[in-house]
Amino acid sequence: MYLILTASKDAYITNKVINNKFRATDANVGHAGTLDLFKLYNESTLSGDVDVFELSRILIQFDLGSLDAIASSSMNINAADFKASLKLFDIMAGQATPSSFNLVAYPLSQSFDEGIGRDVASFGDLGTVNFITASYSNAASNTWYATGANSGGYLNTAPDREHDYITSGTLDVAGQVDFGITQFFKNGSENLDLDVTTVLSGVLDGRIPDHGFRISFSGSEETDIKTRFVKRFASRHSSNPYAVPQLHLSWDDSIVDNHNDFLFDVTGSLFLNNYHRGIPSDILSGAGHGALNGTDCMKLTLEVQDFSQTFDVSSRTAGTQLADDAGVYSTSFAISVSDATDVNSTGIKLKDLLNKSGSVTFKEYWISSDTTQGYHTGSLVIKPPQRSSYNFNPSDLLFRFTNLNQQYKKGDIVALNVFIEDRKATQKASKLPYNIKSVTLSNVFYRVRDAYTGEVIIPFMQTNNSTRLSSDSSGMYFKFRMESLSAGKVYIFDILITDYGLNKVYEGVSGKFRVVE
Fold first, then answer.
1. 313-358 pLDDT per residue, tens
2. Which of 212, 289, 326, 336 has its CA 20 to 30 A from that of 389?
3. Burial degree of 166 (CB within 10 A; 0-12, 13-18, 19+)
4. Domain 262-383 has CATH 3.40.50
5. Fold category of 397-516 in CATH
């Protein structure tokens, strides 16, 4: 799954000197279209100051409320494939920017109000949030512990959280963790792209307060005698929906069922789905009709003639708490084609059946652990791995999104079915019509582009399989959350496959679709 969240509030705070007369410490730019980072040294004069430093810092927060349900169902924040990235987009468009500097983000320890100020020239709009005040509640101002949200401290130290941002803390047995995430900007025109996986995992687990991030120049770059003006990002109030601050979350929620492509000598996985009136539900079994779940809760037996092998089956787990995925059961195993067991009384073995027909069809029995009750009967065709002389050209594949609508709402969560046809495959001759089965592949990935500008919104993610298609006995599919896409735009899906060791991209294989509020 690949999910994009946009900022729920953002602003930057500054102590900039105005007309060499005073500092704009009470100015608010919460509704400005940009997020500006700068550090000025002796660019202004101010009575009483020998050296005049002026700077700004960015504050940003995302609404993570929708992630609670996802973390309990499909997203495991403790898994190695879970990734979170904070992205801000440069909008200087060729104008002069500072270069060779570092930006650092820390989790905020107290909340802030965005405010409604817009003036980024004279900083004449007053209000919270600003350089002195973080928020306003109960008829009182809540000030920063140090002006400019500049009090850093350790997580859960006493007095508890009396600081503005959190520098480090202990999240697990690994010990102390530095929460600062830094990016070096060589040219100054780069976008911000920070790996905030550790911090966000701590927030979603309730161990780090959910108040967003503070972004600033790193360390001495705020205090040295060099001017850095200005690094400018789009804010959430930008007119370009693709440039607003974003939090990109990705994790592997794909299910690869090998019913259609099981191979001898290669470990594969088989899944069984159970439904009660169309709702995924655990199998009810035994005298008390108890729910069947947990580790080794049933068995799978494969038989061909007198040959038989049995494997333990467990309910699938998902989410941070690794809760049972209702009605989904799986087992993984390999069948050796060189198994010496006789298939029948004549001494025939598996390899003899394979040599005769090119595949072996097993009867498939999903049964209770005590073998007294059956739940499902099917068949499994196992083939040998494909071996041939080197062929540079992969299969000639055709993709069809069979249930893609022309329009979706932002809140829609859809399962999209993808039919794959290999046009190089030889089809059997028949006088009667018959259905062609979809090709099943192990490594198929999707991405999303703007249908008119071509801009990539969600990329192919092979590193953690977050955009990998799932497979079942019917073919290929993937789940998609439309909230990742901006309303009012038209999109299209591309497909990438790894076929015979080669990557090949198929652009525009789906129809166009629009997302609306």
1. 999 999 999 999 999 999 999 999 999 999 999 999 999 999 999 9
2. 336
3. buried
4. no
5. Immunoglobulin-like (2.60.40)
